[in-house]
Design brief:
The chain is built from 22 helices and 25 strands. The protein is of the alpha+beta class. The protein folds into 5 domains: 159 residues, Rossmann fold (3-Layer(aba) Sandwich), CATH 3.40.50; 155 residues, Topoisomerase I, domain 2, CATH 1.10.460; 122 residues, Distorted Sandwich (Topoisomerase I, domain 3), CATH 2.70.20; 123 residues, Topoisomerase I, domain 4 (Orthogonal Bundle); 91 residues, no CATH class. Helix 4 packs across helix 6, helix 6 runs antiparallel to helix 18 and helix 10 packs across helix 12.
């Protein structure tokens, strides 16, 4: 009997249904000679540093670097039941073969292997490798199981990645946190990503706006501009020369251009466009796509490919025709799909591009949750655009002469809508403008030698624009392309992170307080900017990731030694700890939180800050201090609060309720007035509101 282990319960359910294991038991499905069970993501995790040695519970420079040998693993907290269920099933005498049905990729391989290793199981393993949760895809994959050993190199690559991330993350985080007295999360991917945000923010901050001018002619409703003038006086000279001169069209240049259909979605491109169109974060898009995958409506989302394989052409053609019947695409005219445009076997790695599945024929898309519905239709739109005809247009550049100054107008004529008609239909259904919707109307037919009189002329003022802050759309693109020039063309992974991890990296930076969202923009915080400034370039540059991915790809192909890679990481960590053994006293204060000013000292006018026991003047030479546990307050069973101190510093008085009277054994309300006599201790008196008769 075979035991099939999926990565998630929902995936196990789909596999069980497709293979006829329909009897549900506690922790598994059974039937047709099969048992199907599941992990819950990572069941086994690397042991944390403190578990190796008690002394690692405290973060100290003297304990660095931490280089476990061998690496040890523990059960992920809260997932013990799922692990024990799998261990029982794997050791069952009826089970003779284990099928690894975890997600088909580097991380899925690691999830299964760590569980398999911890249970001590030695039964033979087969691998189910699929890109769709449709019944037909599962059944085909099950009939073409491969020996688990075929993926040993992929597992070693995944294990090396995990160890390297642990070694650099743990040691660099502890090292710089100890040096700067602030928890500073350092990571191979998140730190260079933060550095890109900081670099862009610096360019925006340093940008100096510059004014320039154009002379503008209005000819038949078209804006015709002169060259750029840096100085207003030069633009005014050009304007003056116009008064005696007609406007003459000196040339008209036409050029036919073609925009080929876009490629299909990989995860990063899907996340980018969903952010641009819907404002979804990368994590939201991944969550929606994963849910649609588990509902069998989308193919596997964690892919970096934008093509299909040749054996999918027939199925893809059927899906295209289904999508074309769905609103709003059903009103598209003259649609003759060419699926071969989306096929390229050499450009597909672990998984093909994201497309809808045949399951959409049985699904009422309108009933999907709004986020999933939007994303599903977005994927349908991309599929239809990808197999449509090219968008063909003609660019027109008309040059005019006026008083010896050249003026230029540019426009275009659409010759064939092609795939852009589909895109416009989709955007219109969302009430969103397409890229060319803001363009002026049809460009007039200008002819060479044509002369114009009494043309409206004016000077328009323009400014240079700073770079734009990163959005999730543009940051994902930057992460995808970071360090590409340093990675060989045939490397499996390029850029920072993978399509599956980039969303989590952005969320970690926000959660750690190094980045904040302002609308769609991602802005580094003060601490984020300082962190990038104090870290070595080796940790902030994409080069480290580029080098790692190059080596990890070689390991996955069986062309490099895993131990050599890990030894190199250990050497790098040793060198890092040795180099950064201490920092200046000023450096240690870089991450100190900005103190809140409670008020201003009544004696010297300097700011007053809150301490653990008091509110004291920031000038050490000044003796002014308000003690929280002053006897005046403790005898009345009160403690001086921040608000009360602020009132005293601002107005010299504060209203206090519930003061205790020992004499009467009850509470009362009063206004406490500060009487600063310049003595060591501040004195107080009380005022009572007059009782109404």
């Amino acid at each position: 009997m075979r035991l099939i282990i999926a990565e998630k319960p929902s995936v196990a359910k789909s596999i069980a249904s497709a293979l006829g294991a329909t009897s549900r038991a506690d922790g598994f499905y059974e039937g047709n000679g099969l048992i199907v069970s599941w992990c819950v993501g990572h069941l086994v995790s690397p042991m944390d540093a403190a578990s190796y040695d008690e002394r690692y519970k405290k973060w100290r420079y003297d304990d660095l670097p931490i280089l476990p040998e061998p690496f040890r693993y523990v059960l992920a907290p809260g997932k013990e039941d799922a692990y024990h269920n799998l261990r029982t099933l794997m050791n069952c005498s009826d089970i003779d073969t284990i099928v690894n049905a975890c997600d088909a990729g580097r991380e899925g391989e690691l999830i299964f292997r760590l569980v398999y290793g911890m249970t001590g199981c030695i039964k033979p393993v087969e691998r189910l490798w699929i890109s769709s949760m449709e019944d037909s895809a599962i059944q085909e994959g099950f009939h073409n199981l491969r020996p688990g050993s075929d993926y040993d190199a992929l597992y070693h690559s995944a294990l090396c990645r995990q160890k390297a991330d642990w070694l650099v993350g743990i040691n660099a985080t502890r090292l710089f946190s100890v040096l700067y007295h602030r928890t500073l999360n350092v990571g191979r991917v998140q730190t260079p990503t933060l550095a890109m945000l900081v670099e862009r923010d610096g360019k925006i901050s340093m940008f100096k706006k510059e004014k320039f001018h154009h002379v503008k002619l209005d000819i038949n409703g078209v804006e015709v501009l002169s060259e750029r003038f840096q100085h207003l006086s030069h633009a005014q000279s050009a304007l003056a020369s116009y008064s005696e001169s007609p406007v003459v069209c000196t040339s008209v240049v036409r050029e036919q251009k073609k925009e080929n259909p876009p490629k299909l979605y990989d995860l990063t491109t899907l996340q980018r466009e969903a952010n641009r169109i819907f404002g979804y974060t990368a994590k939201q898009t991944l969550d929606y796509a994963q849910s649609l995958y588990e509902k069998k409506l989308l193919t596997y989302p964690r892919t970096d490919s934008r093509y299909l394989t040749s054996d999918m052409a027939e199925t893809a053609s059927a899906i295209v025709h289904l999508a074309a019947k769905a609103a709003p695409f059903d009103t598209c005219s003259n649609f003759y799909p060419l699926v071969s445009l989306t096929v390229s076997d050499k450009d597909v790695t672990d998984h093909h591009a994201i497309i809808p599945t045949m399951e959409m024929e049985k699904t009422d898309v309108k009933l999907l949750p709004v986020g999933e519905r939007n994303l599903f239709l977005l994927v349908c739109c991309k599929l239809l655009c990808a197999v449509a005809e090219a968008h063909v247009y003609e660019t027109v550049t008309a040059t005019f002469d006026c008083g010896g100054y050249p003026f230029i107008a540019k426009g275009r004529h659409v010759l064939s809508e092609g795939w852009r008609e589909i895109d416009r239909l989709f955007r219109s259904s969302l009430k969103e403008k397409t890229d060319d919707e803001d363009a002026d109307g049809e460009f007039p037919e200008f002819t060479e030698g044509q002369t114009f009189h009494d043309v409206n002329v004016s000077i328009c003022e323009r400014f240079t624009a700073p770079p734009k802050p990163y959005t999730e759309d543009t940051l994902l693109s930057a992460m995808e392309n970071a360090g590409k020039e340093d990675v060989p063309e045939d490397a499996e992974r390029k850029g920072l992170g993978t399509p599956a991890t980039r969303a989590a990296i952005i969320e970690k930076l926000v959660a750690a307080g190094f980045v904040e969202r302002k609308g769609k923009s991602l802005i580094p915080t003060k601490d984020g900017i300082i962190l990038v400034a104090v870290l070595p370039e080796s940790l902030t540059s994409p080069m480290l990731t580029a080098e790692w991915e190059q080596q990890l790809t070689a390991i996955a192909r069986g062309e490099a030694d895993p131990d050599t890679f890990t030894d190199g990481i250990c050497d790098m960590v040793l060198e890092l700890v040795k180099k950064y053994s201490g920092i200046s006293e000023e450096g240690q204060k870089l991450f100190a939180p900005e103190k809140e000013i409670i008020g201003y000292c009544p004696r010297c006018g300097k700011p007053v800050y809150e301490g653990k026991k008091n509110f004291a003047c920031s000038d050490r030479a000044c003796s002014f201090v308000l003690w929280k546990q002053d006897r005046f307050w403790t005898s009345r069973k009160k403690e001086l609060t921040k608000k009360m101190a602020s009132d005293l510093l601002k107005r010299g008085r504060t209203a206090v309720k519930g003061l205790w009277s020992e004499k009467r054994g009850s509470t009362y309300d009063a206004v406490v007035v500060m009487e600063d006599t310049s003595d060591r201790f501040v004195k107080y008196k009380m005022e009572f509101p007059k009782q109404k008769k």
